[in-house]
Amino acid sequence: MLVDGKHFRTIWFDEQDQVVRIIDQTRLPHHFKILELNTLEDSCFAIRTMQVRGAPLIGATAAFGLYLALKEDLPFEEAFNQLLATRPTAVNLRWALDRVAAAVEPLQDHSQRVASTLETAQAICDEDASNCTDIGRHGVSLIRDIAQAKKGPVHVLTHCNAGWLATVDRGTAMAPVYEAVENGIDVHVWVDETRPRNQGASLTAWELYKQGIPHTVIADNTGGHLMQNRMVDICLVGSDRTTFRGNVCNKIGTYLKALAAHDNGVPFYAAVPLSSIDWTSDEIPIETRDPEEITHIHGLNTQGMLDRVRLTPEGSTAYNVAFDITPARLVSGIITEKGIFQANEDNLAKIKP
Amino acid sequence: MLVDGKHFRTIWFDEQDQVVRIIDQTRLPHHFKILELNTLEDSCFAIRTMQVRGAPLIGATAAFGLYLALKEDLPFEEAFNQLLATRPTAVNLRWALDRVAAAVEPLQDHSQRVASTLETAQAICDEDASNCTDIGRHGVSLIRDIAQAKKGPVHVLTHCNAGWLATVDRGTAMAPVYEAVENGIDVHVWVDETRPRNQGASLTAWELYKQGIPHTVIADNTGGHLMQNRMVDICLVGSDRTTFRGNVCNKIGTYLKALAAHDNGVPFYAAVPLSSIDWTSDEIPIETRDPEEITHIHGLNTQGMLDRVRLTPEGSTAYNVAFDITPARLVSGIITEKGIFQANEDNLAKIKP
């Protein structure tokens, strides 16, 4: 998508310099900075510290991580396990690692293995971008139907960042919004700030602003009130892992919005590439993160510098759980690159790879 | 309640210095600072900028504001209207102003009017403290029943600050917690940070810490997940205005927690003094506040100074609505100084003054 008129992906292989580059998402929305990944350790660090985040982008970064590990002559299996351990919830991480492993395993020659890993990582990126475009093409029908039935803009509420920054390009939940805007449909997005890491306020707001799409940042507490007052037409969220039964694991707080949508008759959809569906299990490991993400926050201070301020009393502890599970009964449908499906086992089985 | 072992109220008349004093709640939890209110304007400023907040405390401050206005020889009705306009949602504000007006109206003599205003303001404070104690005595039965039926601490979830800092003393939603702890019941409080103004992270956490009560700060997004996982035994919240039909207006986001409580069979109670019940109307004006409360946040910076950082992109706007309404159907009961009542017109009519 566009940043100040220039097209970027969130991760790419620079053929000329033979390095992997990413956008450092920990500095957004205040600074736009490109980083190089040169080693396995760079890749693990980028995922762990959330320089890259979002289930599809985590997968793509892990694939490049295996390429960098082989280039460094590190043992493949160790690199695989190290990358797998960076974050527990996104199922794409294992999916991408497995896919690279399958491509590399039959090969003996080191330089062939390196080349195949790079090729697979790049294919994962291209397919992710293309899947997201397809998610947008399917999902836009939901927005178009609403636009045709009402006056004024279609109000979309989203949680966290499931825009292009969460993927290689185009986004999952935001792909239908981009598609709608390109089709001349009037859309306005309510952006949940998404505490504690504020991916909504810092990433979704930034990417919508850079595309010139009307949006308004709200506290996570606000969506229920908006839905009670008919100020939301549809909720669109991403997912870090959706199970074959249609239970949607996404950023903490998603469940609360789904409850409010259900209580007020607002459609609630998750947009997910097939690679983030867990076809084998309904058990989802939920990541807990550093309590300091709650007790402290980063922002741009009055001197225009990035700074960190403490919000809580010294003597208070915090608990930081990163995801919750929205039960399928609250989900109107799952938007995938293959179409829109009801959130249940029978329907999702139709697209099981 | 206690601050470092010494008993404080949130507002009091200092007989010796003949001034009204308050705790400046905008500086908590980082600095504990006492301010003087000497004029009507001081009082309006304190309410408007939330140096004092919480429905009962707003009422008490407004009553003292009328006293200060009369002492300044300002016209009573003008002062009344100026105070009434400071914040729109809390019904105690009008209740307290009306009560002072009723006491003062029959009097002609200026010094008698001044004395009567002060006396009424002090009576409002004493009664508020006593009502909160009674709310605690009634509400503790809910916590005791849970404690007797389970092992380990009773996990209470609360939203915003409905502790002693929201009242003159003792609190509304936190009064049953204080009562429980004083009765030897093992309690742990999940404290919603309560964006955008973070009254939970900064005020509730601080007051629980100062009383030595186990508590954990969480992002507002977290409560649903905790309830799904049986980590919350009861939700206790305050209310800025509860209507005679049992609809509870409270800090934005309360409705989302009530939905989650309902979905998971967790009891959800609002603790409210009778003075915050609106007996005449089911219409509640909802305050919208400065978007900068969302785009920026205050905290203690790395140099130990209070600072303000920006969270959102320069080009993004925000919408800041301060309250939402939890419909009576989601409320297990209303805890008042007269006992616990079902949230419906018939039951609440029993305690209509």
The N- and C-terminal alpha carbons of chain A lie at a distance of 28 Å
Number of DSSP strands of chain A? 19
Q: Looking across the biggest beta sheet of chain A, what order are the strands in?
A: 8-7-6-9-12-18-19
Alpha-beta classification of chain A: alpha/beta
Biggest sheet of chain A, open or closed, and with what strands and sense? Answer: 7 strands, mixed
How would you describe the shape of chain A?
A: globular
Give me the number of helical elements of chain A: 11
Helical content of chain A (DSSP H or I, runs of 4+): 25-40%
CATH superfamily of the largest domain in chain A: Translation initiation factor eif-2b, domain 2
Detailed description of the structure:
The structure is a homodimer of 353-residue chains. Chain A is an alpha/beta fold. Chain A folds into two domains: 2-127, Up-down Bundle (Four Helix Bundle (Hemerythrin (Met), subunit A)), CATH 1.20.120; 134-351, Translation initiation factor eif-2b, domain 2 (Rossmann fold, 3-Layer(aba) Sandwich), CATH 3.40.50. Helix content of chain A is 39%, strand content 20%. Chain A contains eleven helices and 19 strands. Chain A has helices spanning 40-48, 55-71, 76-84, 91-104, 110-149, 175-182, 199-211, 223-228, 254-264, 292-295, 345-349; strands at 2-3, 6-7, 11-14, 19-23, 34-37, 154-158, 187-192, 215-218, 234-237, 241-243, 248-251, 268-271, 277-278, 296-300, 306-310, 317-318, 323-326, 333-336, 339-341. A seven-stranded mixed beta sheet of chain A has the order 8-7-6-9-12-18-19, with helices on both faces. In chain A, α2 (55-71) runs antiparallel to α5 and α4 runs antiparallel to α5. The mean pLDDT of chain A is 97. At the A-B interface, α7, β8, α8, α9 and β14 of A face α7, β8, α8, α9 and β14 of B.
